[in-house]
Design goal:
alpha/beta, single chain, four-stranded mixed β-sheet, Beta-clip-like, 3 domains, 6 helices
Length: 350
């Protein structure tokens, strides 16, 4: 699989040359180059918007094209403004400030990515069933419907996760008769905390995410980890290609069901959202909860608050529990319970 970060010829030579000339900013040569790059990027956004299932070959092509477009941000501030406007057109709820922050952080970390608001899958499991929907009326809040009660009530009256719940979480889905606006069993499908966070540079960590206004209740929905859904083989291939990277955005989530383990791999390296910048802590204030909506796999991996979170506090979750001084990187979470090392997944060593 190609990797644009290790390619000295990033396809922008002609573009840089056009911008380096003494021609006015509104000259035909510069306008043409901006129009060309914008067209390429708009094609990527349109494709991602209309094709949530993309083959690996197509995904590589659009990844390379979109990352080239993103790199233009580092050499042309005018293109940056266009880029932000286009993103807002395709992802309307995303705040302008957050777009600038994620772009700037990714470019400084030399990990440019395309911002998306739902996961991309490379294949569909034909055997996966579509869950049946509830028969609630449009005025029903779904606090006692067949979806919400499948394994016990999911959310309380404050729309916060029931922290005592042990069973799986099923939210109302596309087959349900209820109203999206009135339904209280679609918490992870509604607005997250993207308007209440800031991405900042943090010493020894690179970048991190802080909350601007306090989170007053445990169980508050924070956001969903977004990226490419990978097979286990593809995840191992990505690991081999990224072992030398300082930053790794591949999340492995294990669910233990009876005698089997369900593994979900999500890579936010090339496509993702703001949650890719949430750091590890040995004493985290968030945890990941798998949520089923339309089908059994893959689950939506949602962040919920473990406790109240103060204003300007950094958001964090635990990357795992396995510590080995031979393989683990140093941990800089600074919590009183810090082990001194970052967790790792056994799959990282294969």
């Amino acid at each position: 699989m190609s990797n644009i970060d290790h390619n000295n010829d990033d396809g922008l030579g002609e573009y840089r040359l056009a911008l380096a000339t003494q021609a006015p900013e509104n000259s035909l040569s510069k306008q043409e180059k901006r129009a060309e790059l914008r067209s390429r990027f708009l094609n990527v956004l349109e494709y991602l918007k209309t094709n949530q299932t993309i083959s690996p070959i197509e995904l590589d092509f659009y990844r390379e094209s979109s990352l080239i477009a993103a790199r233009c941000l580092s050499i042309d501030s005018n293109f940056s403004q266009i880029f932000v406007q286009d993103l807002q057109t395709y992802i309307g709820h995303m705040p302008t400030a957050l777009i600038h922050q994620t772009i700037a952080a990714a470019l400084k970390e030399k990990t440019p990515f395309v911002y998306i608001d739902s996961c991309l899958t490379q294949s569909i499991d034909e055997d996966d069933e579509q869950y049946e929907g509830c028969l609630c009326s449009l005025n029903d809040t779904c606090t006692n419907c067949s979806c919400a009660n499948r394994f016990g009530i999911n959310y309380n009256s404050l729309n916060c996760l029931n922290m005592n719940k042990n069973g799986p979480i099923f939210e109302c889905n596309s087959e349900c008769h209820c109203s999206f606006e009135n339904c209280q069993n679609r918490v992870s499908q509604k607005e997250d905390q993207s308007k209440n966070i800031e991405i900042i540079s943090i010493s020894n960590k690179g970048y991190g995410v802080i909350i601007k206004k306090p989170i007053l209740h445990s169980g508050t929905y924070i956001g969903e980890y977004i990226g490419e859904i990978l097979s286990e083989n593809e995840a191992h291939n990505r690991i081999l290609l990224t072992k030398n990277y300082e930053h790794n955005y591949l999340l492995l989530y294990n669910e233990h069901q009876s005698e089997k383990i369900i593994k979900t791999f999500i890579d936010a390296r090339y496509y993702g959202n703001w949650t890719r910048f949430i750091n590890h802590s040995c004493n985290p204030n968030l945890h990941i909860v798998p949520i089923r909506i339309d089908q059994p796999t893959p689950p939506h991996l949602a962040f919920f608050a473990l406790r109240e979170i103060e204003a300007n506090e950094e958001l964090s979750y635990s990357y795992g529990t396995t510590i080995d001084e031979k393989y683990s990187k140093p941990c800089f979470c600074s919590s009183t319970s810090c082990t001194g090392f970052m967790p790792y997944q056994h799959t990282d060593l294969n």
